[in-house]
User: Fold this.
Amino acid sequence: DVKVTQSSRYLVKRTGEKVFLECVQDMDHENMFWYRQDPGLGLRLIYFSYDVKMKEKGDIPEGYSVSREKKERFSLILESASTNQTSMYLCASSSSIRGLGVEQFFGPGTRLTVL
Amino acid sequence: QQQVKQSPQSLIVQKGGIPIINCAYENTAFDYFPWYQQFPGKGPALLIAIRPDVSEKKEGRFTISFNKSAKQFSLHIMDSQPGDSATYFCAATDNAGNMLTFGGGTRLMVKP
Assistant:
């Protein structure tokens, strides 16, 4: 059974704290993604990575950074958390092999609250 | 600016009804249109997908209708069940294939 796991289901942090969200996939996928999910706005891409140590900005990268030191692990970092970063964060992975299509496999999400 | 617009934002139907969720896109380079289903406490999961060379695709009770000239596509759920209550996202991607652009989501409730 394919799996994307996220380090925390719920997280409460204070404004200005540095926050790390971890994601691990066991499917040997090349691509990994971080989204945030807000009501009415759908899933918005923050960053993605198509290989180890490679990263590309998505639609809303401001206030975030990422790290991919190993193929299976993709971390999202909030350098200085702010209240407007309170949201659900979803990690996903996909294969880069075209014949397999573009299905993305999602983790269960981390609900982050910044006070 | 959302490149994929989804409506309605929420929908309530009775068991056995046929909820319809609509999506419209702008980018003519999009060539793959998946729908994802998300249950509470879970991440989204691929439900059904279509490419623009067909106008309809059916998998079980779920059907995608696609109108290339209007740049619109929709999800129909036949004989809906309370277990179909979930949030549904349409999405689109171009032939590069790795990036998905998601619609805003529709929260569906099917009443018993």
Notes: Residues 14 and 115 of chain A are 5 Å apart (CA to CA). Residues 4-97 of chain A form a domain with the Immunoglobulin-like fold (CATH 2.60.40.10). The radius of gyration of chain A is 13 Å.
